[in-house]
Design a protein that fits this description.
Helices cover 71% and strands 3% of the residues. The protein has helices spanning 13-26, 39-46, 50-62, 81-95, 99-120, 123-141, 147-160, 164-184, 189-207, 211-237, and strands at residues 66-69, 73-76.
């Protein structure tokens, strides 16, 4: 009988917001074309931070479930009910992606981002990447966690790639990567200093417009966490909790 039970999961606030939107759509309380309340009003009503509301809306906008119209606000897309339900289910599944899959996707996106950034970057992009590296350096020298600063460096490279879709995909998976970095204690002082020097090398290749070297260096930079995520997946598959 025990095999008929499944583990309980704790949904994130973003999941809960998406689930509520699905429920309102399927019940007919909101229909395609209906305008959603403002982020502020939704946050107050739901009892969550505006960041959670914004993240949920951003994900639903990316998948075409919601859309923002100039001077009209955010509305439900004018597509069929079945399609809307299916898309929302897919978004919820994405929220539960395993760490290894997220990191694997990140490697694919970031090696290409570095390659494109090396050929498309502007002087302003270079300055923004330098600022991100400096912020990262300050944190690690003060022996503070620099996970967010690390990811900001990578997002600035995505911006320099001038590929808005690539950047959007990075923004979608970044929150889950940060959460898993903290859960699995990926970064320590030694790896953070190593990462700092690798960041500088990646930037050097981008400045030199050496796209192949920038891509290869990015791949080398992410190899450690890629290997770690694969090991973590194997450990979880045999039922051992990560330390």
């Amino acid at each position: 009988m025990l095999e008929n039970f499944t583990p309980l999961t704790h949904e994130s606030p973003v999941d809960k917001i998406i689930i509520q939107i699905r429920s309102l759509i399927t019940s007919g309380q909101i229909k395609p074309g209906d305008k959603l309340p403002s982020e502020r009003k939704l946050a107050e009503k739901l009892g969550v931070g505006r960041t959670h509301v914004r993240d949920a809306i951003s994900k639903l906008e990316f998948y075409g479930i919601l859309k923002t119209l100039p001077q009209s606000g955010t509305v439900v897309a004018g597509i069929g009910l079945v399609a809307l339900e299916g898309l929302i289910t897919d978004v919820l599944k994405l929220e539960k992606s395993d760490f290894a899959s997220l990191v694997e996707t990140r490697v694919i996106l970031e090696t290409q981002a570095a390659k494109l950034a090396a050929t498309r970057r502007t002087d302003n992009d270079i300055e923004e990447i330098k600022k991100a590296i400096s912020a990262y350096e300050i944190k690690i020298k003060n022996k503070q966690s620099a996970v967010e600063e690390d990811l900001m460096f990578h997002l600035k490279i995505a911006e320099a790639s001038k590929n808005s879709v690539l950047k959007s995909l990075m923004l979608i998976i970044t929150p889950d990567i940060v959460k898993n970095y903290i859960t699995y204690k990926v970064c320590d002082e030694q790896t953070e200093f190593k990462a700092f020097h690798e960041h500088q090398k990646i930037l050097d290749f981008i400045i030199k417009k050496d796209s192949e070297a920038a891509s290869a260096m990015m791949r080398e930079h992410l190899n450690g966490v890629l290997n770690f995520s694969t090991e973590t997946k194997s450990i979880n598959n045999i039922g051992i909790n990560p330390v």
